[in-house]
């Protein structure tokens, strides 16, 4: 498939007389796609029921005339002020019970039926007008679900919807009491109407209560999205897309994706390094102007898993952003590097955010491809270079990676609800595994938690760390697979109700092992491992007959195996992760990469991305800081 | 007295068919006592007024049949959900004005008259049914007062009760205005009904206002407890007990204890080290799996002071807990060590929490003596060993310690309200003194703040650091005693209304000294002391004729004395504390102990407890890490 | 002008029989002024409408009899409790929506019309009674505007007043929508009544919205003050004064000052170092008992700029305070040093807070000149020495400083609203510049942001760092001045509506330069500068033809100039600030001072103040720690 570039554009921010020139310049830069409309509700429907599509018609016409394909957004992330007059109770409440007021964006509760209906109605109106318009080549629904912590709402609407959800799931309040173990502190309910949201309790709420609320909240996002999908589907054949964010984990993206056609995400490498990644000061200083070397790749691989490989970068950082604690500029070359990295991981489109930096409002310090004074910003030349390179490049053809990594949103919720140790974070654990694989040059595919035996076919290794509860399909697959698999730590120790599995987990097929006890450890405490490395944060005491491959210094079993399946009883440090990759991926060609260099294989090429701030030598080539290189790949040289 | 073991058990969590086996196993392990019922209200009274005692009758019968003695708890810490329908305003409010909702435990305001009455009524119902039942050998009232910050409530009920309390204490609002100095910022009131709770003021509230609220809140706990005592006393002769917590200081435990027969507390050494003790990272790492070497002993000594020496450990940590930021396992041996340490300090009973780890709800990660899969957990063997050792051991007979240490809850409130320096904490100061005494092998008795001359008889040294206001009895005792006493710093400088004492304190008998000025210091600032050591956090400028025993480097008086009474004008560092113990305890045999080793003398034996993670040599014996040793004690070898 | 001393006194706190002796002692100590009344509303009007002036009459008479001149305060900072019965909605709300309750002080919202009226009425009552009384030589209006974060209120009164303010400023809601760029996220309003205060939004509110709220809130303070000025002006000829605080920036002090006659401020050097200044631990430890060596001088210079040079220190710290996290005592000599420093900077009066330490209520740990037991505190002797020295000293005559520094409250609001980097703080930037000037012995005058060409006459250098928007008068002045000026970083890049300036700023006269891009940097990231020093926190990319005087290591322009005007494109470290002072102040005699020593020139003398904790040699003289020295100044020896 031929890869293309896009850009996000807000015609409503600029004089109409500038649109044609903007469109021409986009086209000249080699841009194919333009996303519009997703924040424009107050211009599309200035008063309730009074629509104004004239400007949008003109914008579409102008952009299409320049040869651009349009992604049209539904504007439900920014309901206009009059919507609040209609639905004064549509706002979310935070966990402290405060309303999250109008004045920015995402000021709605997913559980509010009235606003949900109004948003779907808006999608219908747009669908009727533009659904069969060939210039509208794709749709974006809403914008960045979960951004600004907007999944969990404690509003009246949420409370009532939660009670309905519980009634449907448990059928009887007695069943709920039993499932949650409400006898524990006399927390038993007589009716669903007595059940409140799990905020503001005197001490921690029942984890089962919180877990149910997490599942409910995720379902509310799915249902919210589905309402608009339901409105648009009959009206258009263009693909439906949502633009997810980085490390937003409060809803199940796989579940949302089931209703959509293409996944996309918004990639802000430098902001993300600063505001949502662990890492010591040296790491953050080293990658200050590049972003973490694995964060983008991880999300590329994650979102590639959503819709049978169809995915985009809907928003690509093109320069300094405005919303992180500190906002440095990308190193020269990084915009190109990020773009090519996305393509190497299979993106169909990389779309820059935004065309021109706005001179007003919240994001006026967020760079675009153009400066607010209509001069080219630094990113434009790099984007243009990518467009030119794309023209030279043969199609980027995807190929299955040698390693599969399982990712499960519900496990994140489980460990947030019941961390047991302040540093136990699911994403961090999975990301540590991902980084370990990538340090050895391996390409990775991400699988959903209900991956089946069929889904595992073709992989040479499977990693599934930290799964709170293993799904039935995955358990079945593990029972028969011959692929080396790593499970653990803290895997399958809980039921889906977040109670303790009995018999004690992990209850893996043909692996006689049980976790007799767990310990969480403060950051400075390491438990050394025989042969090198250490565990930290978390360590389990195993009992059972499965033989140990790796043990603690005192001989305690740390990694056990039945030959294929491996269970890991602690949180590895970097050195131990390296040993684990060596062990599980022994049958895959690997090589330890220079610090900051990363590889990615397509069907035909190997790409190298140098995230380091200095040049790195690789494969006989010197790759400059922020540089990209690629080589044709013969079958025998493929490593990961 | 013969010491015994107990365990906490929740028959309502388990199938009835398992109870008999559980009871048999408890007995087999050497357990004497079993505590039940304290969270079971929703099973005892599933609907308002509809009681169900069948299961409890059966549980009592089953446990008693196995030879176990029962502690029956009143369930008022966990009112069932229907109680909120009856009293929607029974919830506490936090200082920010948020309700502290149903969904965990302790969801009530001590000032709510309706729920107080309902809880007392439940005690009456239980007392009528079981008060004369010989199988019920003791009662526990409520559970862990003050846990989860539940003493201070800002509810309407609290506001109204506070006004009544003020009216009773001050009789006229004019008297209150004068006592508080409300003229200061035109804070004068015209009536008690104008007085609000001291939260959410623009800047700090009048400290006298806050101190009155603290006294009131403590009295509300006393009154709450007394209501149930009043219900049970006519109905039973079994002793009434409450289980206090560690470092919960918001109410006066001495005052609660006056209505009870036995004090008990819940000892979680590893959790407490992590979540409620000062200490640098090295200290916390060293004792990660043992707990602070003095925290348990301090509370043993404190609660021994409550009811003429009658005290228990009602809940003893038996393995990893769930509620601290990090939850490692105890070193092998620690469960035994903690148990023996309690006995050496005079405990009648050590009761483990809990029999079997629950597989659901909030505490499912909290270890028991049994695992959730009904297999023995690590703690069981150690408990069983203690039971066996108890059988071998002659009675543990208490003896008066050589050193008395005064502890006063109101001083904690005073310095919380008016810290003057961010690091001035009363408990920390007293605990530093306690640690210094224990580093030299001294056994300590704790005395209440109104200790009399009679109470001091027999001690060789008295320490009373940081008393906001000295009580009349203690002042009278100090006027005549010949025992070396250490008073200060910041002692008797304030009135009980938290205004400045005039003449300037400490106003000690026969000690011509006044604190002319105080300074608080940031952590990095030390003021060296002539001869070794330093003061930190706090230093006073003394004037008056009392001679100095220790001075600052520039000659300022730091420790002054009249020969018997010593006043200390600063917060000592460790080296200075050691000097002070040498000085005040010069007439007591002492010896500097290895790091982590602690001694405790009974009437007949000296016990040594090795909290260190390595073996320590002592008295010609090598005591392993987490080890206990004891020797018969001849009168001349007794040191502390 | 002859300089004099004053003191703050609260006769209502003490028995009437003590007043005469207090007054006599004040006079004996050389004190000229006494401030009274500013917190005494509950005694002046114990019940609504029932006044009691008897005690105040007597206090005035007693003080005046001793020869003291009286500053009478209006008591509006402490409305009595009955005022809340009258205006239950007069309280401010914090940003979380919580009321800021009665029980301390400043418990009112500046926007509450009813209380504003009541406060003005009280001023009228006082003015009628005492306005022509010759013993009342000055008035203080209210107390410490903005203290305890009391400028920004989110009450209903504030919301309604904000809407009115917006309506008056923008006239039409369409104009507001355009000015704020509300199209950005469909934030457009249909009427002013839809506009809420900018708190509790889901993510950041529109910076234009927040900036308007900031301007409004400042105007409310101005209007509040003006209401009392309006009440008093017709009734008295005595000067009207307000006592500002240190680093309180939420309202425009220049605007308040326009209605007053004399500026004053409350100088607490040690508290301010601890609770409101940046600085590493070594700096804070070194100056723990002296205060920052530039903080007082900066505010002296700032408040001297308010009312044509007429200013006082209304409250001078005389010993340890009570309100900082840690409260050490001043080094001996510091009370004298602070006093003389104020006079050297032009203060007419230095008034100590307070005469006698109160033995009750919030500030009972705050030292006075007298102890609570009526003995002299350490500060009294130093104050008395200053009084004696003043008698010996010729008049302190002010002279224009060689350097002007522009200070703009609105720039602080702008960068608080839109920091772009977590460490970008306007005050910190300006204060860094001020410190750099003072390190070289320069005296500084502060100018308002709308300084004109006339205002610049006589200066040899002008520093104007960090101005969000340059005023028209200042821009005009810069266009013609021949004085070396330093502008930048981040200067004139925004409009007054906090939108991006177009063409891109700084748009300075005859300086072809534009800021093409900005970057904010985390604390550990430094960008070295060719020739020495570095930039941190903030760096801009310049384009344009103006030649560079200083460049980054890679050659990027950092300081550009047209010969007179210099634009600085980054936040300098200390070494770079020194270079900048060398460059801009090349024509002024300077000398690098020992660490902690500071100079200040009057018309006739050079003063040296040694803030260091050790003696420093200067001008052939050894100045002890906390010492002051002065020399007659000949015109040719004047440096700064
Ligand atoms: Zn976005
Ligand atoms: Zn407990
Ligand atoms: Zn003040």
Automatic annotation (TrEMBL), chains A, B, C:
- Name the Enzyme Commission number(s) assigned to this protein: 3.2.1.23
What catalytic activity is recorded?
A: Hydrolysis of terminal non-reducing beta-D-galactose residues in beta-D-galactosides
- This protein's source sits in the domain of life called Bacteria
Q: Identify the stretch annotated as signal peptide in this record.
A: none
What keywords would UniProt list here?
Glycosidase, Hydrolase, Metal-binding, Zinc
> What is the active site of this protein?
144 (proton donor), 315 (nucleophile)
A cellular-component GO term for this protein: beta-galactosidase complex
Oxidoreductase as a keyword of this entry, yes or no, is no
Q: Where is the Beta-galactosidase trimerisation domain?
A: 401-581
**Entry binding sites for substrate:** 105, 143, 323
Gene Ontology terms for molecular function? beta-galactosidase activity; metal ion binding
Gene Ontology biological-process annotations: carbohydrate metabolic process
Q: Which InterPro entries match?
A: Beta_galactosidase_Trimer, Class_I_gatase-like, GH, Glyco_hydro_42, Glyco_hydro_42_N
Occurrences of domain Glycoside hydrolase family 42 N-terminal (ranges): 8-392
Q: Could you say which residues bind Zn(2+) here?
A: 109
Q: What protein family is recorded? A: Belongs to the glycosyl hydrolase 42 family.
Q: What is this protein called?
A: Beta-galactosidase
Native organism is Sulfitobacter geojensis
